[in-house]
Design goal:
With 220 residues, the chain is mainly α. It has 2 domains: 172 residues, Winged helix-like DNA-binding domain superfamily/Winged helix DNA-binding domain (Arc Repressor Mutant, subunit A), CATH 1.10.10; 42 residues. 50% of the residues lie in helices and 7% in strands. The protein contains 7 helices and 5 strands. The protein has a 3-stranded antiparallel beta sheet. A hairpin with a 7-residue loop joins strand 2 and strand 3. Helix 1 packs across helix 4 and helix 4 crosses helix 5. The longest helix has 40 residues. The termini are far apart.
């Protein structure tokens, strides 16, 4: 069974998959490095501005599901690695080319085969377009379930776009309803809700401090 990921989880898993291949000397990633990679402006769509608290919460959820591991034994800083695929702890096994395609879809959203070949080439070799098309076909017909689907061709476009299916509540083999705009709105709402909770906590702390100050004033 393929994992179902929220938009923030997609970004974190995509980053870990990417950095495992492109910067192996710096992998696994510290929390700070992971946050910076999630928010980088290149090779990302949409560009985000996540903070450490939010990314830490996402990592906690992924750890509970066995999709991320944390290791602090080799250094003083806890570092994170993906267990999403090709892990001794998981069942999902993908080729290097399949990992590269899924990574790009997680990081950038729907893309054409031509775009995927140009962008995923930094992580795996695609000799020609037929190689990319064969990779997409295998992902669409994977033994553990469809991992990509093709979107209807947009007016005036020569190629159809493909998208990944690692989306919560996406019907098997069907395109998820979550598009880039919906993802932006969901991420923005999550950020608003988190700041509301922080404000409420700060208000409670301020009220407690006021009460203590009044009590000290009465004593004096």
């Amino acid at each position: 069974m393929k994992p179902e990921l929220s938009p923030h989880e997609q970004r974190v898993i995509g980053v870990l998959l990417e950095k495992q291949v492109t910067t192996p000397d710096q992998y696994p990633l510290s929390l700070n490095a992971l946050v910076n990679a999630c928010n980088q402006k290149s090779n990302r769509h949409p560009v985000l501005n996540l903070d450490e608290s939010l990314v830490r919460d996402v990592l906690t959820g992924l750890q509970k599901r066995g999709l991320v591991s944390a290791d602090s034994y080799r250094s003083r800083v806890e570092k994170y690695a993906q267990r999403f695929c090709n892990s001794e702890f998981g069942e999902l096994k993908l080729t290097d080319q399949q990992v590269a395609v899924i990574t790009e879809l997680l990081l950038r959203g729907p893309q054409t085969p031509g775009e995927l070949r140009a962008r995923a080439g930094r992580m795996a070799e695609f000799a020609d377009m037929s190689t990319m098309e064969a990779t997409l076909d295998r992902l669409a017909n994977h033994s553990t379930g469809a991992m990509v689907s093709v979107l209807p061709r947009e007016p005036g476009k020569r190629e159809s776009r493909y998208q990944h299916l690692f989306v919560a509540n996406a019907p098997e083999g069907q395109a998820p309803t979550l598009d880039a705009n919906a993802s932006d709105r969901q991420m923005a709402q999550a950020e608003i809700d988190r700041w509301k909770s922080r404000c409420q906590a700060l208000e409670a702390e301020i009220e407690t401090l006021k009460q203590r100050l009044r009590a000290l004033g009465e004593v004096c």
